[in-house]
Amino acid sequence: MAFASIFRRILNGSSTPSLTVRSQFASIRLNSTVTTLTAPKLFISGLNRNTSDENLYKAFAPFGRLLEAKVIVDRGSGRSKGFAFVTYESVEEAEKAREGMNAKYLDGWVIFVDPANPREAQPRLPPRQDNIQSTEPGFTSNKTVGWTGR
């Protein structure tokens, strides 16, 4: 029922987020995050696709000395993927930022701030051998075209 009223408010053009909507988002997300920070790096999700590194930096700068504020973009299209990472000098500053910015609005969207998980090492695969020429006469397969005659 609460979702319907929020949706109705959005459709009616209410541009200012009400306190009840903000508190509903906060209660949903704050109750689920009980983990403590062990590193000064934060994961920011729910970002507007138009949020830039500069806007992110400005939003998180009041909580401490930022080392990095990076919006993650798609390599092919160059568009934001909707999440970012923010790194502070100390864990205490990161904790203040997490408490201050979790379930808040940034560029019109509600963002969520969580501890960043350390990156897992990806296993190295052997190099692909696509360019091996067949010594047998006849038809060969070609991944881009389908098949070719020799």
UniProtKB/TrEMBL annotation:
Superkingdom of origin: Eukaryota
Entry keyword set: RNA-binding
Species of the source: Erythranthe guttata (Yellow monkey flower)
PANTHER family: NUCLEOLAR PROTEIN 8, RNA-BINDING (RRM_RBD_RNP MOTIFS) FAMILY PROTEIN
Name used for this protein in its record: RRM domain-containing protein
Comp. bias regions, Polar residues: 130-150
Cross-referenced SUPFAM superfamilies: RNA-binding domain, RBD (SSF54928)
GO molecular function: RNA binding
Domain RRM: 40-118
Span list, region Disordered: 118-150
